[in-house]
Design goal:
The chain is an alpha+beta fold. It has helices spanning 9-15, 36-55, and strands at 20-24, 29-31, 63-71, 78-85, 90-96, 104-106, 112-114.
Length: 115
C-alpha cells in the first residue's frame, strides 16, 4: 500500500520505556516519537488512507479518530484499535498474542464469542 514492507512494530514498542506506542492514522503521528523509518511509514499510511477509503466507498471525513495502541512484549502482545466516526460513535477492538487474535469468551448459552 505504501511501498514499505519490513516494519517491526514490536521492536519499536520494545524501545519505548513504557513498552507502549500509539499511532494516529489520520494525522500520521506516533507517540512516543519513534525511529525515523517507522515515523515515515506511518506518515505514508496517513497519506494513503484517503485513497484507500475512496476505493472502499468511504469518505475519509467520516472518521474523527483512527488509532492503534500497541503494548506488551512477547508473547503478551496487545493492540487496541479505536475508530470514532464524525457523529461521535466509537468502536474499540482488542487483539492479543502472537499471532494477534481477538479474545474469545463463552456467553451464557455456552457459545464462543469475541470478547
Amino acid at each position: 500500500m505504501i511501498g514499505v514492507y519490513a516494519i517491526d512494530i514490536w521492536a519499536a514498542v520494545a524501545e519505548t520505556p513504557s513498552r507502549q506506542l500509539d499511532i494516529d492514522f489520520l494525522t500520521g503521528e506516533c507517540n512516543p516519537a519513534t525511529s525515523d523509518y517507522l515515523a515515515r511509514a506511518v506518515q505514508l499510511y496517513a497519506r494513503a488512507l484517503p485513497d484507500l477509503c475512496r476505493r472502499q466507498g468511504v469518505n475519509i471525513a467520516d472518521f474523527a479518530e483512527l488509532t492503534a495502541h500497541f503494548s506488551g512484549a512477547p508473547p503478551l502482545y496487545r493492540i487496541d484499535i479505536t475508530v470514532t466516526d464524525r457523529l461521535g460513535r466509537t468502536s474499540n477492538d482488542a487483539y492479543f498474542g502472537a499471532p494477534l487474535k481477538r479474545r474469545k469468551v463463552l456467553d451464557v448459552l455456552g457459545r464462543l464469542r469475541p470478547a
